[in-house]
TrEMBL record:
It comes from the Bacteria. InterPro entries: Amidohydro-rel, Metal-dep_hydrolase_composite, Metal_Hydrolase, MTA/SAH_deaminase. It comes from Naasia aerilata. Residues 73-260 form the Amidohydrolase-related domain. Pfam families: Amidohydro_1. This is Amidohydrolase-related domain-containing protein. Residues 1-20 are annotated as: Disordered.
Amino acid sequence: MCVEREPYQTARAGTGQSGNGSRSLLIRGGLVAGADGVLETRDVRIVDGRIAPAGAGALPHDDVEVIDATGCLVLPGFVNMHSHSYGTLCRHDGARLPLEPWMNYALAGTANRTPDEILVATQLQAIEALRTGTTAVVDHIGGAVAGLAPVLGAYEDSGIRAAVAPMIGDIPLPDSVGLSAEDWPPGTGYGAPEFAQKPAAELLDDTLALRRSWTSPSGRVAVILGPSAPQRCSTDLLASVAEAAEREDMLVHTHLLETRLQAALTPRSGVAPGWTSWTERGS
Ligand SMILES: [Zn+2]
């Protein structure tokens, strides 16, 4: 990063949320790509949270914050379209393992987290994102859905834009990769209460309850639907997600065929009727 500023302030300026709604921001002397892709040294002016047209005259407010961007490239905020904030607190657990066995560590890492742990994990995610110029994230967040309110508050306070997709699935991990519980390596904790799957209806209800309980003061933080992956969700759950997406006008975020194993285990006729009927509707 070329400009040393608080990430919070950077994001507010970059996402249309200027502090008191009437300030102007002048990013002076940075390199900006024109319509033809050629870099030119230009000033960028942001008025009331929006980039002002070039040559639009003087800034209308006396309270102008100036950033010297000399020698820097001025870019729009990046968007991270897939992330898992819970991973900030268990980043090296199960390192170098293939995805499916690694997921045991992910499940263990998110089980029984306290609200403070959930809050800190999200804050770390937001800080890391903002420090790389990322002003919007999709967080496919694991853990018990009913306890995810701190995630929403942390993103709201950070200044970032976030779509929070509670990751839900009702098929146990061993079943999703074609193994019986007895075939699963001992010591992985399979069968422990923390790994028990809730029924499909309950998982979806928890997601919808979280959404209804949340109003984003800034309008930047939203709850969306997050079925974990087709092989980890029953037909009932996928069909319910599809129905809820239409009824509640909600976006859906999911994994799809992340590994060769998953591709090999997925029937060519379609992963699940609920899923395929939903995708065919083009939602
Ligand atoms: Zn993922």
